[in-house]
Amino acid sequence: MNHIPRWITARTIGSILLLLVLSGCSDSSSGKSSEHSSLTSITVAPEDQTIAPGETLQYSATGTYTDSSTKDLSATVVWASSDTNITAITDIGLATALAEGTTSITASYGTITGSTTLIVAETAIPLPQAPSGIRATAGDGRITLSWNNVPGATSYSIYWSNSPGVTKSTGTRISGIVTPYIHSGLTNGIPYYYVITASNSQGESSESAMAVATPTQTTPPPSSSAIIIDHTCTQLDTIPDQWIEAARANLHIAYGHTSHGSQITTGMTGLVSFKGDLYRYSWGGSNGTLDLRDRPFNGASDLGSPNRTAWASATRAYLDTQPEINVIIWSWCGQVSYATEADINTYLNLMNGLEDDYPDVLFVYMTGHLEGTGLTGNLHLRNEQIRRYCRDNGKVLYDFADIETYDPDGNSYAGRHPTDGCNYDYNNDGVTSESGDPAQPFSGDRNWAVDWQNAHTEGVDWYDCDSAHSPPLNANLKAHAAWCLWARLAGWSGQ
Length: 495
What we know:
Layout: H1 6-26, E1 39-45, E2 49-51, E3 56-58, E4 60-65, E5 70-72, E6 78-81, E7 87-89, E8 94-97, E9 101-109, E10 112-120, E11 135-138, E12 142-146, E13 155-161, E14 172-177, E15 181-184, E16 192-200, E17 203-204, E18 211-213, E19 227-229, H2 241-250, E20 252-256, H3 262-275, E21 281-282, E22 290-294, H4 310-321, E23 327-330, H5 341-357, E24 362-366, H6 378-393, E25 396-398, H7 400-403, E26 423-424, E27 446-447, H8 448-454, H9 472-489
Parallel strand pairs: 2-10, 19-25, 20-22, 20-23, 21-22, 23-24, 24-25
Antiparallel strand pairs: 1-4, 3-8, 4-5, 6-9, 7-8, 9-10, 11-12, 12-15, 13-14, 13-16, 16-17, 16-18, 26-27
């Protein structure tokens, strides 16, 4: 047998090794972008998708190297699905949905791996559209943002900057918000730029069109300009007829409420039979009557239902389609009783935003109805918060709770745990339920409205009417106070 010389063998092996090294340096699939750069990570795209069974999705894999360069590795990596019963994937990254469930799609090159989640669902949730109808309205140290709700969106985010061209990557994010949103604590005189996105389980939308506004310092009205309608405003015969007529001629009122707030309107309805057509009202103000639109809003019933903010967006939607409306009034149901100081501040801030955005509209603030917890209860503290704010800032307040605290003779029941139904602690023993029934903790020992009615003449001193939760006298007094409010808003000084 002939043998190859040892020196030839060594030379040949050396040549082969050299060729292998050179080939390795030039191989485009080596995972290196250059001789001195190494693969550090792999990014799989698109991220966190949802598709339906039978649908396909093409993935890509991008490698990032130590020199910050990137390279498409889609055809080089090893593709895998964590559950092949849910999703199959080819060696070029084409995934096919087989059954409902969640799987992880991975792309590996050596020890480097990237991954993303793929959900297979019978009805795939589409990524929401970017919000439209963006509005930015400046106030004093704040900007009110509003937009059209996006179908399928579960949350919204704003991105803001003091420079134009704001995007998701350049702006400061505020997430988990709803429309309208008040961006407060801003510097007056500096422009603020905004884009808004919508999100759901599928991900976040692209940016909306940009909006810009510049907060401007305003001079708050003096406290003397406040209009406070309380128990001192229930004497109907003190209101000159000319101001009743002025209210009928000039006011267009929208009133949102539930059953407690209806004490005002049912009292006004009964007042027509008691005092005559001068006090008649109707939807639209036909035949010269007062234009009072009872419960015209969609999406909210009162200041707390279905939540503490929906009433504001319902107001905006209504005003945007009913430009003749110049008075807005909402009542509370029972939400003030358990409201926090922050909850009431939310209410006050939303009212401020509306006043800024609709300067030709008069907005009437409201206290929450009584529920027997007395002067030390949370309800009283929160009502005082509203009263103080209105007095200090020149607002219009219909003090619902104060009106139901006094009888027509001016006797106060404030220290006797009064309720919206006019029950109170008659014997002042601190027990607000005559029976002691824990299910009726605020039923009271006596009812001041019933006592007053029994001591006076029906049809002369008071009139019967449908009064929710309370005797008719309560609705009588609130109707009288309402007409005092309308006259004041029409220009009457109250003197």
